[in-house]
Transcriptional regulator, AcrR family
Amino acid sequence: MAGGRQRSFDKQQALENAMRVFWQKGYIGASLMDLTESMGINKPSMYAAFGNKEQLFIQATQNYLENYASGHAIHLEHQEFRLVLRLKNYLMSAVASQCGKDGPKGCFLSVCVTEAASQDMPVNAH
């Protein structure tokens, strides 16, 4: 029998919820309480599953890049369309996702870059 208790939460969903908190409040504005409440876990569980706040932020950023930002790139791959149309479709897709009814408004990366320019953030981590 393995030591310790089994994880009783969906790690991907918890990461998704943490990403949304960072997206809405920024890295600095997101308190550990905000993060753990949105993730539905306590602090020890957060540290065990994701590491500290900085490590959680890095994982949330990777999650955004893999599951949100990369989806728009498909519009650039349609070689049968002229470049101007591919760029237009790419930008329209990005804008639609950032202005839609679901999720926080704006671009997660823009929030991060804006905050990083004026604050101490883990921007050189990856």
User: Anything to note?
Assistant: The chain has one domain: 11-118. The helical segments are 11-29, 32-39, 43-50, 53-67, 83-99, 108-118. The CA atoms of residues 12 and 38 lie 13 Å apart.
